[in-house]
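Dear Dr. V.,

Thank you for agreeing to look over these. As mentioned in my earlier message, I'm a first-year student in the group and I'm still getting used to reading structure tokens, so any feedback on how I've presented them would be very welcome. I ran two proteins. I've put each sequence directly above its structure. The first is here:
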Amino acid sequence: MTAIADPASLGFIPERLAFIPEFLQQRYLDGGRFRNFQLLVGRGDEVALFETRGIAREGIDAPLREDAIFRIASMTKPVTSVAFMTLVERGEIALDDPVHRFLPELRGLGVYASGGGDAPFVTRPTDAPMRMIDLLRHTSGLTYAFQNRSNVDLAYRTGRIENWHGNLDLDGLVAALAELPLEFSPGTAWNYSVSTDVLGAVIQRVTDMPLEDYFREVVFGPLGMDDTSFAVPDAKLGRLGDCWNLAPEGTSMFDRAEESLWRKPPRLVSGGGGLVSTTADYHRFCRMLLNGGALDGARVLGRKTVELMTVNHLPGGADLAAMSRSMFSEAQNAGTGFGLGFAINLDPARSMAPGSPGEYYWGGLYSTAFFIDPVERIIMLFMTQLQPSTVYPVRRELKTLIYSALA
């Protein structure tokens, strides 16, 4: 049971904060848009609101548990980025190191010029090598298969190189990427991509440890994140709910808990999107970041490293609306930069939503989301299980409601 503090003592207007779960109930649960949700709003280390509603599984009259396990998808990326930065702090790697220093398979990658499909690719040389910072901020030139916008991502789909239970492990992913062109020269544009999965491969090469073992050693163990992993053990399977898919023809089952893809360890361990976690575990991760890299006597990162990660690193101080080649190029991403694993709020006015400069955040494919506001010292965590995450504006609505509840 999560301990709840008096919202007024934390600077919230109690009745406005209490309205938020009712809003979600009426707009999303009653209308069948979501089957469930879990919402945490905290300030500093304390929790002002923790609400759990809805059903966990289709056809079973069982409410969502407070300790429910969720597929957090791309909320894995900040975890991988933090783990990588522990290696930077140890002097084992640097942000400006070329990626091919540790993944020599990627030396000499070219930029797409023509071809694809039935024709061979024609490439041109990159203007500069891909560097570690490009993986962290998604300026690598890599892409995602699901983007459906280029001959390069078509090659990703054809090769099924992102299949977690396919033939490739992390080394195989790197080898497959070495055979394909980049979409642009590293550092010249932004594109949501498998960059963080490649970062996971770098971590494995540098540490000579399986990625999940290194996560356990430097993040999960020190922070007590005992329910965060790449697979759900049988003993905890009862806490995993179903995950639904929304398509034009209606809502269907994407991943049924009893037969879940997360019941067995993946062959391709995805630092970009493979973790499951709980709200309580991820709250500890967020608290560590808000507290400058430490929590309850365990230090994961140095304070200045967290500060470095949570400022905009896009070239020339640009924002996503200007630099993105595809997703996140929309007008509401004006004023949004990207740091080392997180989106960064540069200008709330340009983003057209309340917030603070320096707020950092991200979300996952299954509609999960978090943000951390170091100015107001607010942490928000929203968990549910519906893909894709772009159908409903719930993240923007939550931000608006939470900031409107500040006294």
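The second protein is here, in the same arrangement:
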Amino acid sequence: METIHLRFDNAFVEEVVFLEMRREEEGNCLLAKSFYDQRDKIYEETKTEEERDERFRSFYTEWFQKLGLSSIFKEIILQFPLILQTKPLIFVKRAWTKKDEETELYDEEGKKTVLIRLQAIRINDRSWLQAYLRSEFMRTSDMLDPVFQYSPRLDLGGESELENELVRERFHVLWNLYIDARMRRRGWKTVFPTETRGHGFEKARDQFTQYELLQLARDERNAPILS
């Protein structure tokens, strides 16, 4: 059995469990009743705020596991051998808005951490969530792959901050398209709109480096099709 180093932000766990139990109220009433009875019992049995907070952290973590929510993430990670081989710590943190959702890689003295910011409400659409996680774990694989030559500090090459921001935006779109094309080759659902497809990645080679994507992003001729 592969070891997966996966952790979740307490705030993310609590909100996801809360959203999931709201769905359960409409179906599995007995499960929902058990959840609320246990929650009420914590209020009754704890006398200090510190004790209550600790009990609730354990309570929501237990229900997060019981509802199979961590399995959604683990099953998809298993589809990415490079992540399993590299064994980074993957930390999922609650994002407040769509704009805040992103994936970052940190490397401190060879110890790698992948931070995925994700809105808890995404749990309400399992199909979309699975597609999104595949796209972000493919992005993670790119960052971990020596062939991709990932660096968090890119020389964007613009002559002004405005130009740099335009290059950064085009680079992000290109990377998304590169991920999207590889996902569809595997027969996976993608999260990107249909109209963004077909800009040269359908028949493109299987491997790009980060620098090669950046070079495409610097080319102003690509701006109209990436806007």
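From my reading of the second output: The first strand starts at residue 6 and ends at 8. The CA atoms of residues 27 and 37 lie 17 Å apart. Does that match how you would interpret it?

Kind regards,
E.
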